[in-house]
Design brief:
about 260 residues, two-stranded parallel ribbon, 11 helices, about 55% helix
């Protein structure tokens, strides 16, 4: 590595990082009705590489999508989740009822279900049940069980450690892997900074301030959006990467237009 001083006028690396997209997807999912599209947006991210026990599971979202599509899944975790979202009894099929149906199919009980799944799909069903139920239950707890920034931050780290991984489950270039690792480092640095806010507030007020998940997410996203690589003070003595209008400046000795 030549260690050339550099800066970015816009957050180019963040936009290229599947890890960053995955973090955003998890945060968005926590506020959603757990609709299929939002959940599978995360499943299809190559950095969604969940860990069960001691090993990472290389999921197959195409097969999972095929399984769920046969079951007419709608939205919501369960009846309580529907009620908290302002709905009462409906015919919408929840994730809980989907899991119950799939569990019955796994044990060979088809008396209450006309859906037939091929034998080769059953291992995928098992993985789907284990991972999807764990993820959505964790997100419900993330949303409802905490009231301090420190607790939100610590539990969100657990979620990221469990379900995301900077080395993608599919093929990747060295550059994308490096960008993902930098992205993870930046996210965890932001989470550590958020934890310190609680400590500072406690030292001032003498008690723990209550915060909502919205507060936590707003703070985290603002810190993530402010990520910039390189040293913004470096101009003529280094390399600046950005859009054309950002780098048309007489202080630059050379301007290279990539792709033209």
């Amino acid at each position: 590595k030549m260690e050339i001083p550099h800066s970015f006028t816009k957050d180019i690396r963040k936009k290229k990082s599947p890890y960053f997209f995955a973090v955003h997807s998890i945060l968005k999912l926590a506020f959603s009705d757990f609709d299929k599209e939002s959940v599978f947006s995360l499943f299809y991210n190559p950095c969604f590489y969940p860990q069960l026990e001691d090993s990472r599971i290389k999921i197959n979202p195409d097969i999972w999508n095929q399984i769920v599509s046969r079951m007419n899944l709608s939205v919501f975790l369960d009846k309580d989740h529907k009620k908290k979202q302002g709905l009462r009894e409906t015919n919408l099929m929840t994730w809980e009822s989907l899991w119950a149906r799939l569990n019955s199919i796994l044990i060979g009980d088809t008396s209450r279900d006309s859906i037939h799944l091929e034998v080769e799909l059953l291992e995928e069903v098992y993985q789907f049940l284990e991972i999807s139920s764990s993820l959505l239950q964790d997100l419900i707890g993330f949303k409802e069980d905490f009231s301090t920034l420190s607790d939100f931050s610590k539990f969100f780290k657990i979620i990221l450690d469990t379900y995301l991984y900077p080395s993608m489950r599919d093929s990747e270039t060295d550059e994308i892997k490096r960008i993902n690792e930098i992205g993870k480092e930046k996210v965890y640095k932001s989470l550590s900074d958020i934890e310190s806010i609680d400590q500072e507030l406690f030292s001032i007020t003498g008690d723990n301030s209550n915060f909502s998940l919205d507060d936590f997410v707003d703070i985290l996203l603002s810190q993530m959006e402010s990520w910039a690589g390189g040293d913004s003070r470096v101009l003529k003595s280094g390399v600046v990467v950005g859009e054309l209008m950002d780098v048309i400046d007489p202080t630059f000795e050379f301007v290279y237009l990539v792709g033209l």
